[in-house]
Structures
1.
Amino acid sequence: MVNKGVRPIMIDLNNCSPYLLLSTKEVAAVLGLSKGAVRKLARSGRLRTIDGFRVLYFSAQAVREFAAGAGV
């Protein structure tokens, strides 16, 4: 089954605002990980989340820092 009309997520971490909020799905796409792996990184404290939301949101800056440290 093909999802027509759904575009792949294309976020350029180098050119977006550091204050951009990214969802778990967006972070997974940027880092090339599964959503479960992103949630596991957040639970372990390796990837910082934005507090105060029911769902996990990440700042672009936190994702950049993680990617630089992980060599992604």
Note: The mean pLDDT is 85.
2.
Amino acid sequence: MNKKKNFEEFKFESIIGMGCTANLVHSTKLPPTQYRRAWGAIYDCGFPIVPNDHWLFGSLNVMKSHSTHWQLGRLTRKYGRTYGLIQGCHPTIVTSDPEIDPSSSHPDTTYEVHEFAARGERWKRIRSLTSKAISNENLRKLFYVMQDSVNRFIMDLENEIIDVKALDLHPYAFYTIIHFWKLSRFQKLTFDIISRCCIGRPYSCQQDDPNLKLLLKKFSPLQRCLPDLKWISLMCAKLCLRFRAAFHLDVDPLVTYTDYLRRDRSSFLYFMKCVEDERWNGWTVNADEPCDFSAMKIIQKLTPGEIINQCRFLTLAGFDTTANTAAYLIYLLAKNPMEQEKLYQEIAVLDEITFDSVQRLSYLHCAIMETLRLFPHASLLQSRTCVKQCKIGPYTFKENVGVIFDTWSLHYDQEIWGNDVKQFKPDRFLNCATIQKKNWMAFGAGPRQCIGMRFAMLEIKIIICSLLKKFRFHKTENMSEFYMQ
């Protein structure tokens, strides 16, 4: 046990040391060469360019802070809907124009890749095969698994509420480099649900789940210290895996975990295992090149590495974002008792919470959409890389330039949403105008829209229905406020 602990400490210290050294060496090369390339990639393209805040890091402080969405809103008001800036040495275009989507997501041509990192033919294959696991038909089968986890969550709340006047469902905590995550009740619940639905865990576990802590270690501390050097983190992770294999240490624990679990016939893992082929290497042939998706024949195969990484991706993407959305909605209902009462009246008529009954709750659906309009907290993941120079409207997008969608500015545009844009009004989605539907992008837009949108919406509906059947939400005296800047 001590040897394993010492190895983990050595690994962390070595990674940080290597990262700092590489950052120093890499930085000395930036000004004369890569900065000129970065400026050339966005210069004279039809949009304004934000002046650098730092001679070396450019506008990296804007893109790598906790207030990035507010800072992008400030820049949008100053420079317009589309503008360019430099992230370290990376040319980037920021836009809140829904018509602009020049490309695919950031590429990763390594063997073990998931849908979010893949592109071209490989992305289409992984996306299509994963979509079958998250189809409406399969979600209907998984509904009772989700409901069972939520029922256990409600039972725990009922037991705790006896001894206290108020419960903190989703505390906000600052993180340190190593211990950066203080898990909330909602996070434990949503991880329990995604573990059972994605990987097929046969039981519910919402207290001290060791696999949740295991998964959170996949967030590299190096990326938080030196966020512009992600490639070093990936390189060190691969070296550590080879080192473990050479000395017969534990392999990737998630691989062992997924192999151990029961193959539930409705879990996402089961669907992917059905098309697994460990000998197939067809993904290497033009897998990441631009292609015509409409004429493409989808090969019904996934490699073991793709399955493992797709499970990891779906698990990471599917628990924290859903927990945050549920927490924001509860917060808004506590602040707006009239809307809470209206939602309660809609839910109260349900004799039983079923897959079909929650789909008919129109006001609940609107409340979730309004929450995600006000807090599109995963919006910065909607980034693209231009794979080929193109022109969209008056703007030129050069090859390999990054594109980030400023969803917050779009969701707070008074010309689209009206003068009450900062208020929580679910009714605005009951008779939503075409322009509003087009500009609601909480889950992204286009072919790369979030694949788990239906799963997340169903999960949140079950959680809110079950909670409002039992409890009411009220503001406490010390409850913090979120200010829409």
Note: The radius of gyration is 23 Å.
